[in-house]
Write a structure and sequence with these properties.
Elements: H1 3-15, H2 23-31, E1 52-53, E2 59-60, H3 63-73, E3 80-84, H4 90-98, E4 101-106, H5 109-121, E5 127-131, E6 143-152, H6 157-160, E7 163-175, E8 178-186, E9 192-199
Parallel strand pairs: 3-4, 3-6, 4-5, 6-7
Antiparallel strand pairs: 1-2, 7-8, 8-9
Length: 216
């Protein structure tokens, strides 16, 4: 398979047509070898417009969703980033190229270990990997950007609280068959705004908070 040709086709036919025009994001996608993070059995699908299965029932997001996530977060070189769900490590690598530092949490230790090896192999050195359940871990730090790579039935306040003032959070909220990507921005006065971006589907987060049942 000609990976470079497939990468160019992905950028022109999937990414740009989804209104991803930020040159830093496009350069990051161009320079980060997606094929190196895809499981070997799925490598022919590395640049396809589809989710790619990972162990434990997890998935890599489709390239266009990853690209929109990176663009919507508007990551600056001085930003600190938190990723919930390391998965294959590909999005982690992209975040590492765009941000000053990245903390990434993964509930499955084998996924975290494999991702760490790939990140090291490709020279991504500003990432800290932790084997943690994001719904139970306690973090003292605050972050400029947060990327959540699994869906939540409802937006969890635990993640909003981790944002710095003017911080941005990307999350997919809802249940099948209706989910939407949302950008949350926390303002300096503590208030926040939420912007609906697009409809998509993501694997649900393990141990996610459930909405309270409606009782008559």
């Amino acid at each position: 398979m000609n990976y470079e040709a497939a990468r160019r086709q992905m950028l022109s036919q999937q990414i740009r047509t989804w209104d991803v025009l930020d040159e830093r994001v496009l350069d990051t996608l161009r320079e980060t070898p997606r094929e190196a993070f895809v499981p070997e059995t799925e490598r022919d699908l590395a640049f396809a417009d589809t989710e790619i299965p990972l162990p434990h029932g997890q998935c890599m997001m489709s390239p266009k969703v990853e690209a929109r996530l990176l663009q919507e977060l508007a990551i600056e070189p001085t930003d600190t980033a938190l990723e919930i769900g390391t998965g294959s490590g590909y999005l982690t690598a992209c975040l590492g190229r765009l941000a000053e530092s990245v903390l990434t949490l993964e509930i499955f230790a084998d996924l975290s270990e494999a991702a760490g090896q790939k990140l090291h192999r490709h020279g991504i050195q500003n990432v800290e990997l932790r084997d943690e359940d994001a719904m139970r871990v306690s973090l003292d730090a605050r972050f400029d950007v947060i990327a959540i790579t699994a869906s939540l039935p409802v937006l969890s306040e635990r993640f909003v609280r981790l944002l710095n003032p003017e911080g941005r959070l990307f999350v997919v909220v809802g249940r099948p068959p209706v989910m939407e990507a949302v950008l949350v921005r926390k303002h300096t006065d503590g208030s926040r705004t939420e912007k609906s971006l697009f409809e998509t589907m993501l694997t649900p987060m393990i141990n996610a908070d459930e909405p309270e049942a409606f009782v008559l």
